[in-house]
Amino acid sequence: MCLGSLIATGQTSSSQPSSASPNPPGQKPAAPAAKSASTKQMLEESKEVGPDTAVITIKGLCPAAKPKTASGSAAAKPATCETVVTRKQLETVIDTVRPNLPPAQRRTLAQRYTDLLVLANAASKAGVEKDPKVQEELRLSKLQILANSYTRQRQQKDAEVPQADIEKYYQENSAKYEQAKLLRIYIPMVPTEDGKAPDTAATKALAEKIQQRAAAGEDFDQLQKEAFATAKNKGTPPSADVGEHRRGTLSPKQEDAVFGMKAGEISAPLEEASGFYIYKVVSKGAIPLDKVHDEIKAMLGRERFRESMEKLRTSVKPTFNEAYFEAGTPPATAATPAPPAAPSPQAPAAPAASTQPATTPGTPAVPPPAPPQSK
């Protein structure tokens, strides 16, 4: 019955293709059904409905609270009553739990929201809100909603990094954005005669010979093929052209060698666990700011947000009773609170919120729409 299941249902539901057989030759195609309106048409029609116009009318749903007369007695229950939800109220719910909901899924959400109102009204009449546990759940839910909302707002604010800060970071960290166009030869480990272990010495000797031939100007792709053949590696030799690499994309040993060379230079064989590598720097240069602008902005935004949260956490100094936390929770000595006067049914599950962007807690579980108008 929760609003979250509605959203999941709405996301997976889609219009099914017609199963009608094609028209016989010569027969005009049948006119489309009047109800199969396009999304564009539904949007146009919805614009004709004013914000204060009723879009859901729930007949028989009366307010839980009974107003009292001047004498203090409860007012007589009207013969009929209804709850009205306007377009503005329903769209507040939609914007909270599922922004940009397709028009075709509004009816499903409206039905689920109606179920939610009916259950909440029944719970209120049954006195569920008087249950101390329910009251604590409501208090904690409010705290969670406030914390989530503040976190999202803080993250959005910190993500707006000034352009001057982006340019300053780029200039002060120019080495991070250096890149080199590379050729590479990989010499896999040569197996020993018994084939049970790699022969590091033989592999190194092979790598040194190939490096000398590469430095003499021989073709890197041809040398790569020979390296695999000599090492008796049955795999397909990789291309020697490995494109552009920036700092942080190679192992530390390879990165130090590559970015320590000038364009045109060839490295010595670099040993790794899987074999030896030989690099040639074809060209070097800095990545333009416009290519890494968004990357820097996002990184600075995350750092600003982290600092904001850390500053907030360190602004308070909680202390904890070690006798309680180290020894475990002692048996409660206080009197157990008296149960509610009338038995209360279990509260219905709160509607789940729609999934939000990543990095922050989700939207509140129960949307805070404007209260429905009751007649």
What distinguishing features does this structure have?
375 residues, alpha+beta, Chitinase A, domain 3, four-stranded antiparallel beta sheet, three-stranded antiparallel beta sheet
Count of helical stretches: 11
Strand order of the largest sheet: 6-3-8-7
Structural class per helix/strand content?
alpha+beta
Radius of gyration: 35 Å
CATH architecture identity of the domain at 177-287: Roll
> What is the helix content?
40-55%
Give the low-confidence spans. 9-37, 334-372
Give the beta-strand count. Answer: 9
The coarse overall form would be: elongated
**CATH class placement of the domain at 177-287:** Alpha Beta
Oligomer: single chain
Strand content: 5-15%
N-end to C-end Cα span: 25 Å
Largest sheet: 4 strands, antiparallel
CATH topology of the domain at 177-287: Chitinase A, domain 3
Mean pLDDT: 80
Q: Give the SSE string.
A: HHEEHHHHEEEHHEHEEHHE
Task: Set out the fold topology.
Elements lengths: L2 H10 L26 H8 L7 E6 L22 E5 H11 L8 H20 L6 H28 L3 H10 L5 E11 L1 E2 L6 E2 H16 L4 H11 L10 E6 L5 H7 L11 E3 L2 E12 L2 H26 L7 H6 L45 E2 L1
Antiparallel strand pairs: 1-2, 2-9, 3-6, 3-8, 4-5, 7-8
Characterize the structure shown.
- By secondary structure, the protein is α+β, with helices and mostly antiparallel strands.
- The protein has a domain at 177-287: Chitinase A, domain 3.
- It is 41% helix and 13% strand.
- It contains eleven helices and nine strands.
- The chain has helices at residues 3-12, 39-46, 87-97, 106-125, 132-159, 163-172, 200-215, 220-230, 252-258, 289-314, 322-327, and strands at 54-59, 82-86, 178-188, 190-191, 198-199, 241-246, 270-272, 275-286, 373-374.
- It has a four-stranded antiparallel sheet, with helices on both faces.
- α1 (3-12) runs antiparallel to α4 (106-125) and α5 (132-159) runs antiparallel to α10.
- It is elongated, with a radius of gyration of 35 Å.
- The chain starts with a helix and ends with a strand.
- The model is unreliable at 9-37 and 334-372 (pLDDT under 50).
